[in-house]
TrEMBL record:
SUPFAM superfamilies: Periplasmic binding protein-like II, Winged helix' DNA-binding domain. Belongs to the LysR transcriptional regulatory family. Keywords: DNA-binding, Transcription, Transcription regulation. This is DNA-binding transcriptional regulator, LysR family. Residues 2-59 form the HTH lysR-type domain.
Length: 295
């Protein structure tokens, strides 16, 4: 039988990459961490972590254990959250985590639908990027997260369920009077001579990749982290910007970006087991909101 406490210690070592940092977080000594990991290895008959001058690296067996530990921790957090709610007879609260543009474009209409069905529910909304929102759901600090990912398979976080909502294609925001404004669509290759304004660092990195495929290196005027700010700079004539459709603001000239190019995908993350029934109602409201966008 695997000792749950030792599994918790291994998860902290994996998360922090160091016995010393894990010891500080767990409020035990580094030697105690080392002893517990050694005891875990003896019980399994195989190594789970390798220490080096660069820190700690997990073995394949260690990675399997940490994945299992994440799933167990998610289940325990969900159970604790559910029991706490039952104990307090507190079924009238819902906490939602969302990224900024999703919170601006999709969430308000969904919350309006939700409030019509459950007017007495106390809502809390947390603004977080997906890498921070998903752990909140896993830990029970949020009941639902509105998240996104880019090209590739959707995330499969341990103990959680990802439900796709929509593809969010990229557009190019242009200054007024730009010579490409009359086009139905453009490609990344058409934009080699332009100066760029980034509203997201990840999108900027992806632009570098697609521009390299087209044979050029983008000239960047601003590396920002806010799509609204980026579009204000575009309107001021600073450059052009690659913006997901959901993040577009009114009053900016746009043209569709044709493949090859990145696409953003938006979805919902909730616990696999025992989700808050109110979160399921909001998830349905989000699906209806997205469906209405296509009409």
């Amino acid at each position: 039988m695997i000792d749950v406490r030792r599994l918790q210690i291994l998860r902290e070592v994996a998360r922090l990459g160091s016995f010393n940092r894990a010891a500080t977080t767990l409020r035990i000594t580094p030697s105690a961490v080392s002893q517990q990991i050694s005891a875990l290895e003896r019980s399994l008959g195989t190594a789970v972590a390798i220490r080096s001058t660069r820190g700690v690296e997990l073995t394949e067996a260690g990675r399997v254990l940490v994945d299992a530990g994440d799933a167990i921790a998610a289940e325990l957090a969900s159970a604790e959250h559910e029991i706490g709610r039952l104990a307090k007879a507190d079924t009238g609260k819902l906490t939602v985590a969302t990224f900024t543009s999703g919170g601006q474009r999709l969430l308000p209409a969904a919350l309006t639908r939700f409030a019509q069905e459950r007017p007495g529910v106390e809502l809390a909304v947390l603004e977080n990027e997906p890498e921070d929102a998903v752990p909140l759901v896993r830990e029970g600090a949020a009941d639902l997260a509105l998240v996104y990912h880019y090209d590739g398979p959707p995330p499969q976080p341990a103990g959680l369920c990802f439900t796709p909502l929509m593809a969010d294609p990229m557009w190019i925001a242009l200054p007024d009077g730009h010579h490409l404004a009359g086009r139905d669509a453009v490609t990344v290759a058409d934009l080699a001579a332009e100066r760029w304004v980034h509203g997201c660092l990840v999108v900027g990195d992806m632009l570098d990749h697609y521009a390299a495929m087209a044979g050029y290196e983008p000239r960047v005027a601003c590396r920002g982290t806010d799509y609204v700010f980026a579009q204000s700079l575009v309107r001021a004539g600073v450059g052009i910007s690659m913006i997901p459709e959901v993040a577009l603001t009114s009053g900016v000239t746009t043209v569709r970006l044709r493949p090859p190019c990145p696409t953003r995908y938006i979805g919902i993350v909730m616990p696999k087991r025992r989700p808050n029934p109110l979160a399921e109602i909001l998830a349905e409201a989000l699906e209806k909101t997205v469906a209405a966008l296509d009409k």
